[in-house]
């Protein structure tokens, strides 16, 4: 039996195409993180002008419209029929709670602070995966998790007089988001990705719409109106970019570039709000990022 050799030029072309695809995916991931920062910045800007529920509603409305356009449930009604409806609803409530906690926190804290604390999420997920999913971490990963949470303490500094209660909301957001991610992994085993995306935003939009309609507060300027529209559009755009990025490269390649959000958050806080990142925030963020990267590196090696 004979085998046909594959031309080296063909292999090089495919290899080059894969590298280009991954470079584009990395760029898309970095832009996605910038969009997430723009969402947080918009929420921080809108906080003195509009009620919290109206800001969150605008964010969810834009994402819901995007998800519905992408899935086209009129043509594909099965997209609205998850196999695990109960878990989808609970998961959506976790996400809504996370958004509310995040938007409250950014009103009182620097964007760099909230972002640095939220970077503890991969550590919380790794810790929670043991009792919930049976995916226990080894002693080295557990040590990295402890080091990462030490970095969170450096940012929060609960032992000082500068501690703000909103930092507690950030920590609560990490816990809630870890639960959200655990449920995401469970529903992903049975339901389509687009079905999960729809429920991620639709539930929050439905719950908030009656509150917004009965307690509507008119924006007090065109600028506020524009930012209210922007938060929905850029949030939806971030979802789209994230999907495109993961279509071009595996999550293991993209994961480290989520930490670029700290750069965007620091720049946005400085340029838009005049917030100079505190040394403790940068130091703590560095510890958290290094711990997260170590977990990622260990995960790739297994």
UniProtKB/TrEMBL annotation:
<dbReference type="InterPro" id="IPR037185">
    <property type="entry name" value="EmrE-like"/>
</dbReference>
<feature type="transmembrane region" description="Helical">
    <location>
        <begin position="141"/>
        <end position="160"/>
    </location>
</feature>
<feature type="transmembrane region" description="Helical">
    <location>
        <begin position="21"/>
        <end position="39"/>
    </location>
</feature>
<dbReference type="InterPro" id="IPR000620">
    <property type="entry name" value="EamA_dom"/>
</dbReference>
<feature type="transmembrane region" description="Helical">
    <location>
        <begin position="166"/>
        <end position="184"/>
    </location>
</feature>
<feature type="transmembrane region" description="Helical">
    <location>
        <begin position="51"/>
        <end position="71"/>
    </location>
</feature>
<dbReference type="Pfam" id="PF00892">
    <property type="entry name" value="EamA"/>
</dbReference>
<feature type="domain" description="EamA">
    <location>
        <begin position="24"/>
        <end position="156"/>
    </location>
</feature>
<feature type="transmembrane region" description="Helical">
    <location>
        <begin position="224"/>
        <end position="245"/>
    </location>
</feature>
<feature type="transmembrane region" description="Helical">
    <location>
        <begin position="92"/>
        <end position="110"/>
    </location>
</feature>
<protein>
    <submittedName>
        <fullName>DMT family transporter</fullName>
    </submittedName>
</protein>
<feature type="transmembrane region" description="Helical">
    <location>
        <begin position="257"/>
        <end position="274"/>
    </location>
</feature>
<feature type="domain" description="EamA">
    <location>
        <begin position="168"/>
        <end position="291"/>
    </location>
</feature>
<keyword id="KW-0812">Transmembrane</keyword>
<feature type="transmembrane region" description="Helical">
    <location>
        <begin position="116"/>
        <end position="134"/>
    </location>
</feature>
<keyword id="KW-0472">Membrane</keyword>
<feature type="transmembrane region" description="Helical">
    <location>
        <begin position="196"/>
        <end position="218"/>
    </location>
</feature>
<feature type="transmembrane region" description="Helical">
    <location>
        <begin position="280"/>
        <end position="297"/>
    </location>
</feature>
<keyword id="KW-1133">Transmembrane helix</keyword>
<dbReference type="GO" id="GO:0016020">
    <property type="term" value="C:membrane"/>
</dbReference>
